[in-house]
Amino acid sequence: MTEFRQVRRSSLLPDRIASEIMAKITDGDLKPGDTLPTEHTLAETFGVSRNVVREAIARLRSDGIIESRQGRGAVVKPMSERETFRVDLRALGKSDHYADLFELRGLLEIEAAGLAAERRDATDLEELHAAIVAMNGQKSFDEMRLEADASFHRALGKATGNTYLSAVIDYISSRLKETTRATSDIYDKDDLLDVTINEHRQILNAVEAGDRSAARDAMAAHIKGAAERLRVPGKSDKVSGR
């Protein structure tokens, strides 16, 4: 029987639970065709509510990792049937996966910022402003500020008017919470949130002004700064998008 370990109270987040389940799948403890334990069993094992487990399973389903089958519950899908791109949170800190993720962000989000500057409407600007407002009020990141950070990037993706680009940025933004948590653990200054907010404001100012070039530059500076604060080796100088 597959055994899960209880997660710490400070980490009771659906993405953490999803990562633990995904680790069992990656390691082969849960194989294609296997059925996950029930929500009730998982909730007791992890020490969380069934709502948290339900959201974690929904994320794995959205990622194309599992599917719901009548009379069986959540079943692990074969690798050949997993159609969606995903970022494995457990693997992020290994090898140069952080570097690869930041390089991908440079390729996607810099151009997205430029498109957003050209295509944004009043609603998009309201959502971007609201995200920055929600990030204020603390000296460091908490879960509310992490979600506000992710919301900013989702709103920027939506402002591109490109359905597919928006969907990819939406997905990646939720996984970037893990990079911010990791940065908070190693960043030796007390201005992480202030610096991040300022970088977001620079992006917003350029998008609001309709300045494509400035928006791209501001996003490039943000991604490079985030990579450097996380001490990502090797590729922090390759996120200029040029």
Description:
With 242 residues, the chain is mainly alpha-helical. The protein has 2 domains: 9-81, Orthogonal Bundle (Arc Repressor Mutant, subunit A); 89-229, GntR ligand-binding domain-like (Four Helix Bundle (Hemerythrin (Met), subunit A), Up-down Bundle). It contains 9 helices and 2 strands; from the N terminus they run αααββαααααα. The protein has helices spanning 14-26, 39-46, 50-62, 97-119, 122-135, 143-159, 163-186, 192-209, 212-229; strands spanning 66-69, 73-76. The protein has a two-stranded antiparallel ribbon with strand order 1-2. A hairpin with a 3-residue loop joins β1 (66-69) and β2 (73-76). α2 (39-46) packs across α3 (50-62), α4 crosses α6 (143-159) and α6 packs antiparallel against α7. The radius of gyration is 19 Å and the shape is globular. The termini are far apart.
